[in-house]
Amino acid sequence: MASWSFEALANDPQCVIACHAVASIEVRIFMPDNFYITAERCLNAAVALNISPTDHKHLACYLSGYVAECAAKQIIMVVFSASPKDIKKAFSHGLTALSDWIQLIALDPAGHSIPLSHLPDFHSDAAQILAKWNPNNRYSNSCGWDGACSTNFIGEATSIMTKLAQLRASGII
């Protein structure tokens, strides 16, 4: 009979990988998507990666784009009383389409309770992210996501997150 312990299992790489796989499946099944918390988490990680002594500017750019994406999805979800699943299905990672919907929401202030001052304008608040971000660039080393880009993206992501936090503090989202 083989002996085992939790300590031995925790140190076994195959077991750790299997446990993470099971945990991620359970998270997907039992926890609904929360675009606000994801945006906040991505911004915090982007900032940490940007100031890291190792060169992770590329990943900081990647995560900054997700801040914009998640913020737009959160706003659209609230305005249209949609589920996270519906939003993910309708938009995937289409930041341009998401920003267009945010513009449409801004054009009809009577159709929602969001103060326009709290509504991000992606063409001004996130112009660089909107122009240069593509989630597929995570595989590229030559897309121009360098230190300057990372700093710009994080500044824009912070601006968007500030407006999203205002919406949350106001009880709108």
How would you describe the overall organization of this protein?
The protein is mainly alpha-helical and 173 residues long. It has 2 domains: 1-31; 33-169, Four Helix Bundle (Hemerythrin (Met), subunit A), CATH 1.20.120. 68% of the residues lie in helices and 0% in strands. It contains 9 helices and no strands. It has helices at 6-11, 13-30, 35-51, 57-79, 84-91, 95-107, 122-125, 127-132, 147-169. Mean pLDDT is 80; it is low at 1-10 and 13-30.
At a glance:
By secondary structure, the chain is mostly helical.
How would you describe the shape? globular
How large, in whole angstroms, is the Cα Rg?
19 Å
CATH architecture of the largest domain: Up-down Bundle
Helix content: 55-70%
* Mean pLDDT reading: 80
Count of DSSP strands: 0
What is the terminal-to-terminal distance? 55 Å
CATH C-level of the largest domain: Mainly Alpha
Q: What fraction of the residues are assigned to beta strands by DSSP?
A: under 5%
Unreliable runs: 1-10, 13-30
How do the helices and strands follow one another from N- to C-terminus? HHHHHHHHH
Sheet bearing the most strands, described? none
The number of domains is 2
- What is the CATH topology classification name of the largest domain? Four Helix Bundle (Hemerythrin (Met), subunit A)
Discrete helix count:
9
Class based on secondary structure composition and strand pairing: mainly alpha
Keywords:
173 residues; mainly alpha; Four Helix Bundle (Hemerythrin (Met), subunit A); 2 domains; 9 helices; 0% strand; globular; disordered N terminus
